From TrEMBL:
It comes from the Eukaryota. It comes from Parathielavia appendiculata. InterPro entries: SKP1/BTB/POZ_sf. This is BTB domain-containing protein.
Length: 313
């Protein structure tokens, strides 16, 4: 993965310092609050610290300022990252609203972006973002009752770094087992491709058999234990866990929580600081995530309706 910085623009809008981020080979332009980005994780803090602030640059000459360029990331994925960055508390409801508003094909595109968002979060080591992306993925699969596809598995086991994809793989394997043990046509289609997938990706085969072993140990029935369904608590009665998975089963912090409360739920109980931000073309008003609910900000990202991206279905 390659990251670079180069000469470009850091500006200041309405008294808030903004950093310019270019994403992808096309260098799609995002103007984001410097503090918000730096506070999100060490990755951005480290990379943005090297960019001079307007106050330290000479005479506010924009042409002499700097930019962060993420050449290997997808701009459409990054738009969803920006939504999360600015509206964490409303992220899940925003995704849910989007799935109601956009077409199934567009939802598949959004799904693909969420997968890449999860991988991006792994790369920059931002567990809260990983887990928000995972929640959104599960909810979207549940809404449309999607199964796991051979193409998605081939992507996770053939194209992705094993460490970055470890949580996605865990969830995908659970989805594979659930799909295979269904009684419908999709199960037969997947079963017909299983030998080819196992031959191509031995790790997939090992993970699948390990999953079945764990399910058998816990006396779970893979025909009805649905990985689309994230149950709204970690401490469950025995009957509840038959039909879905604990809230944090596929979260990156899973091992440290046990049956306790999801740390992201606790963190989201605190209001984020709202900061006014204005996009250069002054489009797209979206309510901020701050405690001042009446204050509207101009979102630095476009609407999810406009996203277009590689489909993994
Ligand atoms: Zn959790």
């Amino acid at each position: 993965m390659r990251w670079s910085t180069s000469k470009a623009v850091v500006g200041s809008f309405e008294g808030c310092e903004v950093v310019r981020v270019l994403v992808g080979e096309e260098q799609r332009d995002f103007n984001l609050h410097r503090k918000l980005l730096c506070d999100s994780c060490a990755f951005f803090q480290t990379h943005i610290e090297t960019i001079p602030s307007p106050s330290s640059s000479q005479d506010g000459d924009e042409d002499e300022d700097s930019v962060l360029w993420l050449p290997n990331e997808a701009p459409d994925m990054f738009e969803i990252f920006v939504l999360w960055l600015y509206q964490r508390r409303k992220f899940s409801s925003f995704i849910e609203t989007a799935t109601q508003r956009i077409s199934p094909d567009e939802c598949r595109t959004m799904r693909t972006n969420l997968v890449h968002l999860h991988l991006f979060a792994a790369v920059i080591d931002l567990p809260a973002l990983q887990d928000a992306a995972m929640d959104a993925l599960q909810d979207t699969y549940l809404r449309f009752d999607w199964d796991m596809s051979p193409r998605f598995l081939a992507f996770l086991y053939g194209d992705c770094d094993a460490q970055h994809a470890v949580r996605l793989r865990k969830w995908a394997i659970a989805m594979l087992a659930w799909t295979l043990h269904g009684a419908d046509e999709k199960a037969a289609v997947m079963a017909g491709q299983l030998d080819r997938l196992f031959a191509a990706y031995p790790d997939l085969q090992a993970d699948y058999h390990m999953h079945l072993h764990k399910m058998a140990q816990s006396r779970a029935d893979v025909r009805i234990k649905n990985p689309q369904l994230r149950l709204p608590a970690n401490k469950l009665r025995s009957g509840e866990r038959l039909f879905g998975f604990r809230q944090c089963t596929f979260h990156s912090h899973r091992a440290t929580v046990g049956e306790g409360t999801c740390p992201h739920a606790l963190a989201l109980g605190h209001a984020l600081v709202a900061m006014p931000v204005r996009r250069r073309d002054n489009k797209d008003e979206i309510e901020s995530d701050g405690s001042d609910a009446d204050r509207l900000i101009i979102s630095p990202v476009r609407d999810l309706n406009e996203i277009s991206y590689l489909d993994l279905s």
